[in-house]
């Protein structure tokens, strides 16, 4: 059963005002301790119209509203903060996991620092290493928020030694205040920077910009076993170790994590008797290396994940809820609309072997390919496969053995892309990209029966500066594929009148194919339907305030940030966004 934290709305404001007034009085009395109060506000409003041509989702309440505001107070060694959130109701498709509804307190904390010790009570976000064992974080525009509610202690007894400890429960959803999951999470992490800890022994290394960082962590969750049919572990632990070698040119990082058996809703196995718990342990390996000098950058990475879903509720309703750890994707995070929202890649925690390589090179100014301003070229290649496994089957049991560190036969994803960016003169700059994608739509986006997608994309991005304040940017994208929704074309024009105004116009055209018929996902030959998605935006910026008003069609797609994604349904309507910082 999930617990709910509810503070009266008026009471929260009074408490914050009282604290600010008290601290301000203390400053005037003491005459010297600095007091700072800052924060931010953001809101998104959308009015939905009927549009059967694109299958637009129209909720019972035509007007949806997401808003939140943060206030942070710093006073000497102390800091405190809170966030009020409102979803009346939330935008369609938001958030990625458990639904949000109502208005109330979403986050609050108090912390202090003293002689290398930092203690936080309340809500907090934290990460160990790259997150294989533990990462709590928020991405507000995805609706991802697995903040802890408890106690965090950080301590640096000597330079170069960093200790962390956390305990608490995770945010689960929002019902007029944040709700918490049933599991309790405990974790500890230690990190040693040898260059700082042993300056005498490694002085020559430090002077040359070299360092070795070692780290280790252990995280466990507790959840009572209430299953009458199976014996489930109540305490599930994950331990991990990491090594980072740094020089001015090289950065080599490796991390390993091992999870004991953790039967959960995301890794159940199917047998002749139905779904059964999976008692197989989990394992994660992450290796990254980068080399960088002026004008040249090279990076390579390898990831391998086996049964690594780790959630504080074994019965979490979706893969987006109550995640304790984070498995970073090894794929290029595209920023252009078509590759970023149609076929983005998300990590497959139960079974994945992936690798990526990227080379960046800048042709020097004055060279035949560099010209007057130089030319930047980026090559990127990444792939992801399932594990190399052999199944073991019986009437009441299903398991597998892993044969190697290499990939299995099941391909998930391929992305090969090249980008060339060139400044032609002081007023014109152009970038061109070519991408080739292979994409398992059925597995990655959970669309049963969907065809495996093979797609090619071309992108041209042109920027023209009229002056230091005024510019226009044109963007053209095209996607060729015979699968899924067929072919797409996108054009965009964005006018900027600094420092206050910008106007953007975009049209996406799903013309599917040049033929009159098309093979749909069920293998049927149907008549080709061609649909356009025009949308316009106007924005105004003044100091820390930003206002954006838009109207038009929004196609269905996937919205991703940092490898975490949520589905965005098709919609037609008016949108208003307001953000402010102080």
Structure description:
With 582 residues, this protein is mostly beta strands. It is built from five helices and 36 strands. The protein has a 26-stranded mixed sheet that branches. A hairpin with a 4-residue loop joins strand 24 and strand 25 (428-440).
Unreliable runs: 1-30
First-residue to last-residue Cα separation: 38 Å
User: Roughly what is the average pLDDT, rounded to an integer?
Assistant: 87
| Number of continuous helical runs | 5
Principal-axis shape equals globular
Structural class: mainly beta
Tell me how many strands there are.
Answer: 36
Task: Detail the topology: elements first, then pairings.
Blueprint: E1 3-4, H1 9-30, E2 35-48, E3 63-75, E4 78-87, E5 100-114, E6 117-124, E7 126-128, E8 134-136, E9 138-139, E10 144-145, E11 148-155, E12 161-175, E13 178-180, E14 184-193, H2 194-197, H3 203-207, E15 211-222, E16 235-246, E17 250-259, E18 269-271, E19 274-276, E20 282-293, E21 296-306, H4 337-341, E22 351-363, E23 375-394, E24 397-423, E25 428-440, H5 441-444, E26 452-465, E27 470-481, E28 487-497, E29 501-512, E30 517-519, E31 525-527, E32 531-542, E33 545-554, E34 557-561, E35 564-568, E36 571-581
Provide a compact summary of the structure.
The chain is mainly β. Helix content is 7%, strand content 59%.
Question: Which key phrases capture this entry?
Answer:
582 residues; mainly beta; 26-stranded mixed sheet; disordered N terminus; two-stranded antiparallel sheet; 36 strands
């Amino acid at each position: 059963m999930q617990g709910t934290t509810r503070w009266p709305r008026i009471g929260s404001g009074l408490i914050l005002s009282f604290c600010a007034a008290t601290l301000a009085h203390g400053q005037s009395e003491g005459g010297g301790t600095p007091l700072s109060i800052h924060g931010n506000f953001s809101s998104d409003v959308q009015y939905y119209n009927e549009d059967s041509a694109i299958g637009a989702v129209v909720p019972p309440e035509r007007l949806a509203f997401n808003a939140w505001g943060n206030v942070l107070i710093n006073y000497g060694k102390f800091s405190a903060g809170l966030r009020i959130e409102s979803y009346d109701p939330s935008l369609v498709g938001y958030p990625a996991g458990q639904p949000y509804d109502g208005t109330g307190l979403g986050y609050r904390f108090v912390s202090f620092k003293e002689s290398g010790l930092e203690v936080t009570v309340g809500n907090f976000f934290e990460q160990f290493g790259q997150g294989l064992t533990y990462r709590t974080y928020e991405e507000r525009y995805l609706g991802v928020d697995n903040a802890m509610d408890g106690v965090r202690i950080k301590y640096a007894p000597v330079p170069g030694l960093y200790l962390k400890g956390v305990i608490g429960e995770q945010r689960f959803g929002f019902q007029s205040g944040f709700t918490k999951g049933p599991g309790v999470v405990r974790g500890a992490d230690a990190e040693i920077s040898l260059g700082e800890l042993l300056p005498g022994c490694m002085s020559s290394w430090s002077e040359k910009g070299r360092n070795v960082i070692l780290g280790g962590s252990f995280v466990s969750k507790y959840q009572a076993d209430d299953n009458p049919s199976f014996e489930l572990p109540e305490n599930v632990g994950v331990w991990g170790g990491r090594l980072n070698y740094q020089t001015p040119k090289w950065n080599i990082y490796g991390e390993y994590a091992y999870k004991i058996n953790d039967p959960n809703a995301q890794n159940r196995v199917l047998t002749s008797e139905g779904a059964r718990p999976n008692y197989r342990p989990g394992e994660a390996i992450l290796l990254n290396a980068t080399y960088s000098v002026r004008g040249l950058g090279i990076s390579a990475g390898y990831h391998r994940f086996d049964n690594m879903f780790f959630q504080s509720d074994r019965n979490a309703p979706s893969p987006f809820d109550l995640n304790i750890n984070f498995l970073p994707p090894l794929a290029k995070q595209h920023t252009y609309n078509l590759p970023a929202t149609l076929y983005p890649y998300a990590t497959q925690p139960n079974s994945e072997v992936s690798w990526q390589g990227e080379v960046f090179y800048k042709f020097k100014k004055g060279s035949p390919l560099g010209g007057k301003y130089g030319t930047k070229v980026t090559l990127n290649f990444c792939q992801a496969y399932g594990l190399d496994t052999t199944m073991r089957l019986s009437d009441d049991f299903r398991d597998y053995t892993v044969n190697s560190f290499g990939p299995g036969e099941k391909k998930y994803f391929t992305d090969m892309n090249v980008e060339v960016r060139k400044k032609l003169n002081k007023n014109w700059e152009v970038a061109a990209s070519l991408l080739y994608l292979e994409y398992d739509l059925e597995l990655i986006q959970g669309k049963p029966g969907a065809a495996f997608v093979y797609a090619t994309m071309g992108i041209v991005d042109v920027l023209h500066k009229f002056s230091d304040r005024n510019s226009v940017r044109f963007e053209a994208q095209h996607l060729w594929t015979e699968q899924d929704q067929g072919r797409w074309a996108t054009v965009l024009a964005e006018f900027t009148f600094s420092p206050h105004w910008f106007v953007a116009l975009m049209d996406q055209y799903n013309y599917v194919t040049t033929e009159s018929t098309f093979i749909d996902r069920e293998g049927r030959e149907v008549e080709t339907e061609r649909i356009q998605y025009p949308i316009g935006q106007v924005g105004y910026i003044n100091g820390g305030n930003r206002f954006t008003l838009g109207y038009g069609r929004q196609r269905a797609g996937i919205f991703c940030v940092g490898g975490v994604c949520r589905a965005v349904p098709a919609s037609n309507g008016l949108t208003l966004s307001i953000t402010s910082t102080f």
